Amino acid sequence: MVSTFLGLAAWFVQVQGQSFVIDDNTYSHEWLSRTVMPSKRSDMTATTVGDGIYLIGGCDNDQEWSTGAGMYLCTGLTKTTHKYLPATDSFESLPEAPRSRYRHAAAAVGSRIFMFGGRDIADNIIQEIDVLDTETSSWSTLSNPMPNATSDLSAFVDGNSIYLLGGYNAIYAAQDQVMIFDTVESTWSPSYPLTQGRGDAASAIASGVAFALGGFSHENNFAAPLDHVEVFFTTNPSGGWKSRSAMKKARGDKAVAVLNDMLHVIGGEAKNENGHSAALMDVEVYDARTDTWYVGGSIPSQRFRFVAAAHGDSIYIFGGQGALMGTYGEAGSKYPILDVVEQYKESVTQAVSSTPILATFSALSMFMPFSSIFMC
Ligand SMILES: *[C@@H]1O[C@H](CO)[C@@H](O)[C@H](O)[C@H]1NC(C)=O
């Protein structure tokens, strides 16, 4: 019996091919398809507050080839605001934001979500800070704009402070600036710069320290993304930013969320041999305690410029743009905007090696309802 259980457990792990072990714990996951968004969008933000994930702004029309510009451009922006409720797998419509924007950053302190930077449809950088009060579902705009605003910037939260990192200035030069916004006083102060200017990066706190990951820079004319990772200790700021182990794959515009206190880096954008945007599908997981990267499987469908947010035992990924339709650089070709939502559900179980029978039971319980285990 036990060997059958062990064989089955090993088979499941093999079929999934996506689990990794840290100390005595096996981290496994499954992907589940969820209700599609009420409208398609990419390059928006997803922010978790309380029982919901708030999706704000973004591009809501396909990115089409512009012969004049010689590149793919978003052809429509939105100010719609939707709240996704993981518990019921449903969406609520909230009042529209004061303005459309995409390629912005959002961060929550308490019940308020703050919106920073990004661009309008004419490619101007947005300076205004719009704030959604999730308790009253109402929007307001702060009287003082963001200094040195950028697009494609990243944010992390430390207490009442929001740190805004890098991004592109008006002429698409990747910045290394870090600014601290005090949400109580509504004041700005400069912080220690990144070691590497970057836009389309990502930032998050894991194991109590802040990270900036990947992204693109004008320094190589956006020919390839960065695999570079750096870390900052808000409790010891004078140490500045320091390099950590690079990601296994260089990428920009990926989605990053924290689950089980580890960074989960999902998909993103790379460049193929012709210099065209290529969507990545893999997931990498980073354990800050040991500065180690693990392989966490891959997204079920091809997309990039999507967003992710953690809630409960899962990360939810929303929308983005799919694979190129048509021939690159030809009129009518486009990266289609998506409405799909997928859930990455992570389970942690004690490794099979330690106590075979109990561990096998817990490994199996990930895949079977209790009743079917007891029937065995
Ligand atoms: C904005 O940029 C200027 C010029 O680089 C710099 O002196 C200033 O400190 C920046 N502001 C903040 C809040 O970082």
Automatic annotation (TrEMBL):
<keyword id="KW-0732">Signal</keyword>
<dbReference type="InterPro" id="IPR056737">
    <property type="entry name" value="Beta-prop_ATRN-MKLN-like"/>
</dbReference>
<feature type="signal peptide">
    <location>
        <begin position="1"/>
        <end position="17"/>
    </location>
</feature>
<dbReference type="InterPro" id="IPR011043">
    <property type="entry name" value="Gal_Oxase/kelch_b-propeller"/>
</dbReference>
<dbReference type="InterPro" id="IPR006652">
    <property type="entry name" value="Kelch_1"/>
</dbReference>
<feature type="domain" description="Attractin/MKLN-like beta-propeller">
    <location>
        <begin position="73"/>
        <end position="323"/>
    </location>
</feature>
<keyword id="KW-0677">Repeat</keyword>
<dbReference type="Pfam" id="PF24981">
    <property type="entry name" value="Beta-prop_ATRN-LZTR1"/>
</dbReference>
<dbReference type="InterPro" id="IPR015915">
    <property type="entry name" value="Kelch-typ_b-propeller"/>
</dbReference>
<protein>
    <submittedName>
        <fullName>Kelch-like protein 1</fullName>
    </submittedName>
</protein>
<keyword id="KW-0880">Kelch repeat</keyword>
